[in-house]
Design a protein that fits this description.
Elements (H helix, E strand, L loop, with lengths): L15 E2 L11 E3 L9 E4 L2 E4 L9 E3 L8 E4 L2 E6 L8 E2 L4 E2 L26 E6 L5 E2 L3 E6 L5 H15 L7 E4 L13 H14 L4 E8 L7 H5 L19 E5 H4 L2 H19 L5 E4 L4 E6 L10 H14 L3 E4 L9 H7 L3 H20 L10 H5 L5 H8 L8 E5 L9 E5 L5 H10 L4 E6 L12 E5 L2 H6 L6 E2 L6 H19 L5 H5 L16
Parallel strand pairs: 1-3, 12-13, 12-14, 14-15, 17-18, 17-21, 18-20, 19-20, 21-22, 22-23
Antiparallel strand pairs: 2-5, 3-4, 5-8, 6-7, 7-9, 10-11, 10-16
Length: about 525
Amino acid sequence: MNRERRDSVGPGPAATVKPLVPRPGVDDIGLLLGDVPRGALVELADGTAPAAEDITAGHKVALHAIPKGAPVRKYGEVIGVALADIPAGGHVHVHNLGLGRWEEPTASPPPARTPPTGVSPTRDHFLGYRRADGRAATRNYVVVVPTVNCSATVARMIALRADDQHKGTPGLDGVIALPHDLGCGMAEGTPGDAILRRTLRGYLGHANVAGALLISLGCEVNQPENILGESENTGLSMGMGASEGMEVETLAIQQLGGTARTVNTALDRIADLVSRITKAHRVPIPLAELTLGLQCGGSDAYSGLTANPTLGVAADLLVASGGKVVLGETPEIYGAHHLLRDRASTPEAAARIDQLIAWWQEYTTANGATLDNNPSRGNRTGGITTIWEKSLGAVLKSGTSPLNDVVGYAEPVTAPGLTFMDTPGYDPVSATGMVAGGANLLAFTTGRGSLFGSRPVPCLKISTTSGLYERMRGDIDFDAGAAMSHADQLTYGTALFETLVDMASGAESKSEALGFGTEEIVPWRMGAVL
C-alpha cells in the first residue's frame, strides 16, 4: 500500500513543531518527523521550548530537561542513560545518550501496544507445492550446493548453464547455486563445524528444494557424508532417489577428473531431475503450513513506529491461522529481551532467552566488542542511538503472540506460533539460519534501503517510510510508511498479510525479479580458521 505521509515536510519558520511521542506521559523523548532548525519552537509535555540545535528528521528531541545519569525512555522502556545534562528541546543522540551503568530491566511495565483485536485472517490457504512426504513448499528449485568454497565456482558454472538450458520450464522456478566460503580450514566436531553441517543439511532438505546436487572437491574437511550421513530425519541420503520429494547426488570434482567433466556430468543429472520435477503443480494448502521468518535491516527511527509493528500484525494473523513465525537476531533483542521473556509460554523458554543474552555478552566481550556495537553507521544516521533502542523497535516484528519455543541456529522450527531462533544480527547470516530451519517465506523491513534477497525462499521487503518506497520502488515490495497509528497498523498489517500469502502462492518478489538470492547464503562462521 502506498499512502503519502502528510507530515514529511518540515515546519515553516513560525510553526510549532509537534514531535511524535510513542508513549505519551511515559516517554522522555519525541521523534521529529521533519528537519527542525535551531530555535524553532518544539511542543513539550508542559509547554514549548526552542530547539537547542538543528535536528534532523527521524531524530529524538528531549521533552523535558533530563539530568546526567538519568534513564531515558522511549516506547515506555529505557533506551539508555543521559551522558550529560540534556535541556528541554535538546537533540538526544550519541553525543549525550549511551548505555551507561543503568540497571538492565528485569520486569516490564504494562504493555505499550494493544494486541491486534478487531482483525482476523482474511485468507485460509495459499497455493503451494505438496511434497510426497507431506511438506508444503512455496517455490520449486533445483539447487547446486558446494561442500566447500573450493567447489563453489564449479557449482556456479553448473547452475548457470543448467538454468539457461531449462529456463521457462513449467513448474520450475530455476536452477541455482548456493555458494558459501566455508568447508575447510576448520576442525571437525567443533561448534562451527556442526553449524555448517546443520545449515547445509537444512538447505538440501528444504521443502522448496525439489532436487539437489552436492558438489565436493574431494579432499575437504566437510565431506559429503558429514552432511548427508546425519540426515536420518530429513529424507536425505547419498545417491539419487532418497525420496520422491527430495533427491540428492554428490559429485566429486577430483574423482571425476576436473571441472569440465564435473559440469557435464552435473548437467546430465539435472536434466533427469527436471523431467520429473515439472510434474509438480500448485494446489490449495492451509496457511498453517507456512513458516515466516522475520528480518529487519538498515533500520531507522521509523522502523519501530511503522514497518515493524505493521509486520507484527501480519505475524499475529499468520499465528492465528495456525502458522509458524520465527524471530531471530539475538543481539537485536538485547534491551528488549525482558519483553520476550514475559511472553514465554513456558519457564524453559523464558530461561533460554536469558541464557542466550548472557552467552552473547560473553561472546562479544571475548572478541573485543560489546552488543552496543551492533547499530551501524546507517542506523545511527537514521536516528537510532543505542542497541536498546534498536531492539525495542525490532521485537515489534514478532507481534503479540506468546513465545512458544527457542531454538539454536539453523535448528528445525517445529512449534506452532512464535519461535525465537538464536542468530547473529547480520541479516544474511540470520536469514540463512531461518531458511535452514524451515522458513518457507521471509519478510524484511528496512528504513535505509536494504537490497537483501533470498532463494530458494522468497523474501518480501517492507519500507518504513513512503519516501524510501518512492526512491527504491524497484527493490521494495510494500510501503508501510503511513502506518503511524495503531489503527493504521491494523489496516496495513492485514494488507501485508495478504501480500505475503500472494507471494507464498507464487507472486514474484522484487528481489526475485532482480535475480537476488544466490549470494546471500551466509552460514554463521564460528571458531578458528586453521
